[in-house]
Design goal:
The complex is a heterodimer of chains A (560) and B (512).
Chain A (H helix, E strand, L loop, with lengths): L4 H17 L6 H19 L2 H7 L7 E4 L15 E3 L1 H20 L8 H20 L3 H10 L1 H11 L4 H33 L9 H7 L3 H24 L8 H8 L2 H26 L1 H5 L1 H24 L3 H22 L2 H32 L10 H4 L1 H15 L5 H15 L8 H27 L16 H19 L2 H21 L3 H10 L32
Antiparallel strand pairs in A: 1-2
Helix pairs in contact in A: 1-2, 1-5, 2-4, 2-5, 4-5, 4-12, 4-16, 4-21, 5-6, 5-7, 5-12, 6-8, 7-8, 8-9, 8-10, 8-11, 10-12, 11-15, 12-15, 12-16, 14-15, 14-20, 15-16, 15-19, 15-20, 16-18, 16-19, 16-21, 16-22, 18-20, 18-21, 19-20, 19-21, 22-23
Chain B lengths: L8 H26 L6 H25 L4 E4 L4 E4 H28 L4 H19 L3 H19 L6 H32 L4 H11 L5 H18 L8 H8 L2 H24 E2 L2 E2 L6 H24 L4 H21 L8 H27 L16 H4 L1 H15 L5 H15 L3 H27 L13 H19 L2 H11 L13
The chains are: A mainly alpha (560), B mainly alpha (512).
Chain lengths: 560, 512
């Protein structure tokens, strides 16, 4: 079963969707049960992955590899190849968890066209998992684009008043980025053919890792930067980084609650995942280029500050949370482009944290919306008097989102900032310079979240409509329980997460610095890697291997 | 004349698909006279049987050719190569699906005459002459046979003014362009003293060196005008939206796939000859390639912009089909000034294959909207289609996304190979333009999807009744669109075979 575990996880939701096709659409209860069972099954099936992965967490390379290169469409060199490392493992677990939570949360929220809703949602789940699992660039691209369709329909059919606008905007923005990425992929494909020894046409990602960094020397910095940009736009739009973020508030505000949870929790991570999986190892020299790195760092900082400032101004709760996502994802990209092991593992962890906290925030907003059908902050006040359980959960999640110690957000943000701070030179400026610009984002996060909490929950009930609101039902509590557990777990004991991330992150940073062929930066990375820098990850375990493994190649080491 | 020289059994073999189609067309005309009004469906059955017989004859040719890539026949007027066989199958498949989609439509329109199917078969006979002809006279005759049959088919709804208007416009413009085309061909004959494309091809490079090269350029431009008219590229596209809108919807589907594929077959024949024996105007590639760059950019720009504002679905799809021509032309541009790119031609052939199914499917769904009361070709008529006919609406979504080029649907593969060839030959700007326009295209396809899935049904609209033949037609198109999309390998190999591309991609080259 270990050989096919990824395929099983990948296609469980799709099987559920196909099964739902045969249920008559009048039978809403049966549809809900089947969809929830398959979503839960999707999560439960992914749980065995945890111990199996844990056992080989320090081994180099991709794990659980399935399929061989070029087996899908041999004539063009595309293959159905799946495989994961620590980074994609965490994101897959996040996806299966959030998929189940958001399907559970839709039980009463969706009343019309129930059958379609669950079918599209389950298809979306398969698409997202495929993005994180694909080890073939072509397969990746297919999942990346195919996943847009169900999301478009989820926003467009079950969304709010401006749903058509939001749905089309979401689809067009993302597509515009990804078609340019397709051209970039094709360029890599031809370059691999001419640069590799066997002159093979292939989309296999481990193969492309070997040749892509040579583009900088083969075609010169200008061409390499353009190529970097073709990928950058696709991922930056998805993240979304600052100038490309305008689709996000629209899509978030109009989407149904569960759609927002998935959008914030998983879809945005596809962009950061793309940076980590492709941009870093493919274009190390471009990233080392001062000007390029300067601008990506500046865009991250702008996203942090701008997103937080705009959040402060919002009158609509959902929009506030949406803009806070821009700010949080700014931290993630900051950590990625700091290019230190610490920053990178902090960034991945922060992505998981953001999925948990912001996912929960959207659920929280959705619960109020379901009861009152408005998200205007001014409509509420004193909610903690009528819904105490709800208010407590909300408080915890707000604190987790703003980065209070002992909760998950703190660990992620602190590691990112620490990783950036300790780097001596990022694009001509010392690390503390960038950290100094990013820190106000943490303060502002506390400001907009606490102010929101004060306006909505504290005081007396000002609006008579709010007096009769009932507190959370057991089902609603159930949606929060896994998220709360995760928030405390990561906050109190993040060591396992850092251990899972250690191998891929160190390998990645080592590759970037080695391929960029600047000796002093390698020394830099080596000096920083010891785990003592991680504030919460305590002493290194005995079996912990040396921090930077000697040039572990990305070749498959599966057991199939 | 006496006995024809060099006329052998081979020639009959090569001509058999065309002869069979003609015989069945004439047979339909005779049988139609004897059929009572309720049994006119028998005409469609006869036509389908004719298509099948013809396909069997094509299969015999393929079998007879064996490993040989091509064969001359009929006194060197026919060059039967694998690409021509590929096109034959394409025409027949498109026609078969279009026939399935026509049966109930014609009943609704009360125009259920046998001539309809007879004309369809005759036009396919013309297409085959265009695809396999090696002689400009045969190609021209084939073109006229196809075009005249199509003019009549466009005006087939006698009582519908729009149909009459469309037919007249199409006829006038078509006749005009045929005239220009014939003029170009006559210049070619005058320059080379031969009507055979192989001879023209071998003499053309010499002519480009001497003082007649300006005549050669005029010949090229006039010929190109005729060719671009037939595939509806901007600036010779004006007939397409009108003809597509006015024609019976089933014929619009037929025109947009089979007739367009025939135009492409002819264009490839004249501009590059056969992939196995480059001839025709290939020597003038340094001149026609830049012209095509402009035409292609103009086509993508104009068609995508015009499609944005359309409110009539047939017109919208007409502009979308013009836009697709723009993408396909990019495949012909790929390469250097002197060298063609094999992947570009491959892209065109795959594009035409997938386009046949996805576009016919889309038109099939629109055809099925036609009922006693409503015409069903306005965007508003699609409102809430999902609640009236869920299966058709979902399939329409599949066709639209495929047209937009979203993987893993068939339409993606057409675009994929076109852009692949552009990147391969370092036309990065053109490639970027092309992909961005395809994003543009998604907007108007989504407009249709929005109406279907998110629009509100008007009160009192009942479920849409779709006939079995129509379901079969749409079903075949949908199956092909999804199947080619997910498992394209077999089809890519077929196209490789048709172009003589050696299977290992590492040594992909056009065989000369």
């Amino acid at each position: 079963m270990q050989n096919h575990i990824l395929s099983i996880i990948l296609f469980t939701p799709l099987v559920g969707a196909i099964l739902l096709l045969f249920v008559p659409k009048e039978n809403k209860e049966a549809i809900r049960w089947i969809a929830n069972i398959f979503a839960l099954a999707g999560f439960l099936i992914s749980i065995p992955l945890v111990p199996w992965f844990w056992a080989q967490r320090f081994e180099p390379g991709f794990k659980f590899i399935e399929g061989t290169a070029n087996n899908w469409i041999p004539s063009i060199g595309a293959g159905y190849v799946l495989g994961i490392d620590g980074i994609s493992f965490l994101l897959i677990m996040l996806t299966t968890l959030l998929g189940w939570v958001s399907i559970l949360s839709s039980w009463t929220a969706i009343e019309n066209r129930v059958k379609e809703y669950y079918i599209w949602f389950l298809i979306l789940q398969t698409g997202m998992l495929g993005v994180f699992m694909a080890l073939d660039f072509f397969l990746f691209f297919v999942f990346w684009e195919a996943m847009l369709v169900p999301m478009y329909l989820l926003i467009g059919i079950w969304g709010g008043p401006r749903k058509l606008y939001a749905a089309i905007k979401f689809f067009l923005y993302t597509l515009a980025g990804s078609v340019l990425m397709l051209l970039g992929i094709l360029f890599l494909y031809f370059h691999h053919h001419s640069a590799s020894l066997d002159h093979l046409y292939t989309f296999s990602i481990p193969e492309l890792y070997k040749t892509a960094p040579q583009i900088y020397t083969d075609y010169g910095p200008y061409a390499a930067t353009l190529l970097f940009l073709s990928f950058f736009f696709a991922f930056a739009i998805k993240v979304p980084m600052f100038p490309f973020h305008t689709w996000l508030p629209d899509a978030h505000v109009e989407a149904p609650t569960a759609g927002s949870v998935i959008l914030a929790g998983v879809l945005l991570k596809m962009g950061t995942y793309g940076f980590i999986r492709f941009s870093l190892p493919f274009f190390p020299d471009v990233l080392m280029h001062t000007r390029v790195r300067f601008w990506v760092m500046v865009l991250s900082i702008i996203a942090i500050i701008y997103g937080a400032l705009v959040s402060l101004m919002q009158k609509d709760m959902k929009k506030l949370v949406a803009y806070s996502s821009v700010s949080h994802l700014g931290f993630c990209t900051l950590g990625i482009f700091a290019l230190t092991p610490l920053g990178l593992s902090g960034s991945v962890l922060q992505q998981i944290n953001h999925g948990i906290s912001t996912g929960a925030l959207f659920l929280i907003v959705g619960i109020l919306y379901e009861r009152r059908h408005t998200r205007e902050i001014s409509e509420y006040g004193g909610i903690s008097n009528v819904m105490p359980v709800y208010a407590t959960i909300t408080m915890i999640m707000f604190l987790s989102s703003m980065g209070l110690p002992l909760l998950n957000g703190f660990v992620g943000e602190f590691t990112i900032l620490g990783g950036t701070f300790l780097e001596k030179d990022i694009a001509g400026h010392p690390g503390w310079f960038w950290t100094a610009w990013a820190v106000p984002g943490v303060v502002l996060a506390a400001a907009y979240l606490l102010w929101l909490y004060q306006r909505v929950f504290f005081g007396t009930v000002t609006n008579p409509k709010n007096e009769k609101l009932h507190d959370l039902t057991p089902r609603e509590v159930a949606t929060f329980v896994p998220l709360l557990i995760m928030a405390f777990w990561i906050g109190l004991y993040p060591k396992p997460f850092f251990q899972i991330l250690e191998q891929p992150v160190n390998h990645l940073v080592a590759t970037v610095h080695r391929d960029a062929s600047t000796p002093e930066t390698v020394a830099n990375a080596a000096a920083q890697t010891p785990a003592a820098v991680v504030p919460v990850a305590v002493a290194s375990p005995a079996k912990r291997p040396p921090a930077i493994r000697p040039a572990a190649t990305a070749t498959a080491k599966g057991k199939n | 004349m006496g006995a024809l020289p060099q006329f052998s059994a081979t020639d009959y073999l090569l001509a058999l698909p065309i002869i069979l189609l003609t015989l069945f067309a004439l047979g339909i005309l005779l049988i139609d006279l004897m059929l009572p009004k309720e049994q006119k469906w028998a005409n469609a059955v006869t036509a389908l049987i004719g298509v099948m017989f013809s396909a069997k004859a094509v299969y015999n040719i393929q079998h007879w050719l064996g490993p040989a890539p091509y064969s001359y026949g009929l006194m060197y007027t026919v060059l039967m190569d694998r690409a021509a066989i590929y096109f034959f199958y394409l025409f027949l498949a498109g026609t078969a699906v279009a026939i399935l989609m026509s049966v109930s439509y014609l009943e609704t329109e009360n125009e259920n005459h046998g001539e309809y199917y007879a004309l369809m078969l005759l036009s396919v006979a013309g297409m085959m002459c265009m695809a396999a002809g090696a002689d400009i006279v045969l190609i021209f005759i084939g073109l006229e046979l196809m075009a005249i049959s199509t003019y009549v088919l466009v005006g087939f709804l006698r009582r519908d003014r729009r149909s009459n208007e469309a037919a007249l416009k199409y006829f006038l413009l078509g006749a005009f362009s045929s005239g220009i085309f014939a003029y170009g061909l006559s210049l070619l004959y005058g320059l080379t003293g031969s009507t055979n494309l192989m001879v023209i091809g071998s003499k053309m490079s010499g002519i480009m060196q001497n003082e007649y090269r300006f005549v050669a350029i005029i010949a090229l431009l006039t010929t190109l005008t005729g060719l671009l008219f037939k595939i509806a590229a901007i600036p010779f596209h004006q007939w397409a939206p009108d003809a597509y809108e006015g024609a019976p919807t089933s014929i619009t589907g037929f025109m947009s796939v089979a007739v367009k594929a025939a135009g492409w077959a002819m264009l490839l024949r004249i501009l590059i000859g056969s992939p196995f024996r480059l001839s025709g105007l290939i020597a003038l590639r340094p001149i026609w390639a830049p012209v095509l760059v402009f035409v292609s950019i103009a086509t993508m720009t104009g068609a995508n912009l015009a499609a944005l504002t359309q409110t009539n679905t047939k017109r919208l799809l007409a502009y979308s089909s013009i836009a697709h021509v723009g993408y396909m032309l990019l495949g012909l541009i790929a390469g250097t000034a002197a060298m063609l790119n094999a992947d570009g031609i491959k892209g065109i052939l795959i594009y035409l294959l997938v386009y046949t199914f996805m576009n016919l499917g889309a038109f099939g769904v629109i055809t099925s909207l036609r009922h006693k009361k409503i015409i069903g070709d306005e965007l508003d008529d699609l409102n809430g289609l999902y609640s009236r006919a869920p299966v058709e609406a979902v399939l329409m979504l599949v066709f639209l996304l495929s047209l937009a080029g979203i993987p893993p649907l068939a339409g993606f593969w057409g675009k994929y190979f076109i852009f692949l060839s552009l990147i391969e030959t370092q036309h990065y700007v053109l490639a970027a333009l092309g992909v961005l326009y395809s994003v543009f295209g998604l907007y108007y396809y989504l407009k249709i999807a929005n109406a279907m899935f998110m629009g509100q049904v008007e009160a009192g609209e009942e479920k849409l009744a779709v006939s079995y033949t129509m379901r079969a037609g749409i079903g075949i198109a949908a199956f092909a669109t999804i199947f080619i999309g997910i498992l394209p390998n077999r089809f890519i190999e077929v196209v490789n075979w048709a172009l003589g591309i050696v299977q290992s991609p590492a040594v992909a080259k056009l065989v000369r």
